Amino acid sequence: MMETKMPPMPAFYIAEHTALDLLNSVCAPAGTDIDWLEDGTALISWMVGAAMVEPQVGEEILSSIPPDDLDGAAEHARMLREDFRRVTGLLESSEDVTVSSDDLAFLNRWLEVPLAGRPFIPRDGSGFARAPLCVPQTGDQLVRLLADRIADYLSETDLAQLRQCEGPTCTLYFRDITKNRSRRWCSMAVCGNRAKAARFRKQKSQSAQD
Fold first, then answer.
1. Can you list the alpha helix ranges (DSSP code H) found in the chain?
2. Domains of the chain with CATH codes
3. Gap between the Cα atoms of 98 and 85, Å rounded
4. Taking all residues of the chain, what is their mean pLDDT, rounded to a whole number?
């Protein structure tokens, strides 16, 4: 069974894309930094939570890849995350800034790591399906899986949907896929309710002064 020192709260998977959930894998929700990728076991736990690997595959990875290699993968995953954060900063910039090939060198390096593909195979009856994801054999292949998600995000989504929560102390990112681009909060249950409560307190205070 996977055993890891559990963070004080569950990881956030609210971004509408795994690449942005990766950015959200470190934050300070209560003034204390929490990093859900702090070591190799935590990395696998996060990837299972993000539905990148099945739980049984996570168990197999933990039993087959040496702990030092997994911890190295977690370190590289954190570096990949921050390099991707720099790119999202360029995408968010109000200035006329473009993302260059040099800005993506960190990503292309990891996309060059060999990883077995998922060929189409016949299904029972009719039609076809993708073969199951091959179990990564090295820490570098784990990081490659994360790089794939970032590449998918940059190449296949509407980058104008990129948003950061408007909560004054919140750092979480998400894709605004609402029809009228009206999403403002990482979660209505968290920052949305805090904003509503703050407005209520302000209105109550103003009423008391009138």
1. 18-23, 40-49, 55-64, 67-92, 105-111, 139-156, 193-209
2. 18-209 (1.10.3300.10)
3. 15
4. 85
Which among 192, 138, 141 is positioned nearest to 168, based on CA atoms? 192
Report helix, strand or coil for 72: helix
pLDDT of 7 reads 60
Two structure tokens written together for 60: 């197999």
Instruction: Judge contact between 103 and 87, C-beta under 8 A.
Output: yes
- Write out pLDDT tens, residues 162-177: 999 988 888 899 999 9
Q: Kindly tell me the sign of the dihedral angle through the C-alpha atoms of 144, 149, 150, 156.
A: positive
Is residue 51 very low, low, confident or very high in pLDDT (cuts 50, 70, 90)? Answer: very high
Assigned token pair, 112:
């060059």
Q: Are 175 and 21 in contact (CB under 8 A)?
A: no
Pair of tokens at residue 73: 């993968």
177, two tokens: 């896929």
Q: Rg for the chain (alpha carbons), in Å?
A: 20
- Residue 9: both structure tokens together: 């709260």
Q: Is 102 helix (H, G, I), strand (E, B) or coil?
A: helix
Query: Distance (Å, rounded) from C-alpha 163 to C-alpha 94?
Result: 13
pLDDT of the residue at 200: 40
- The C-alpha atoms of residue 110 and residue 60 are separated, in whole angstroms, by 22
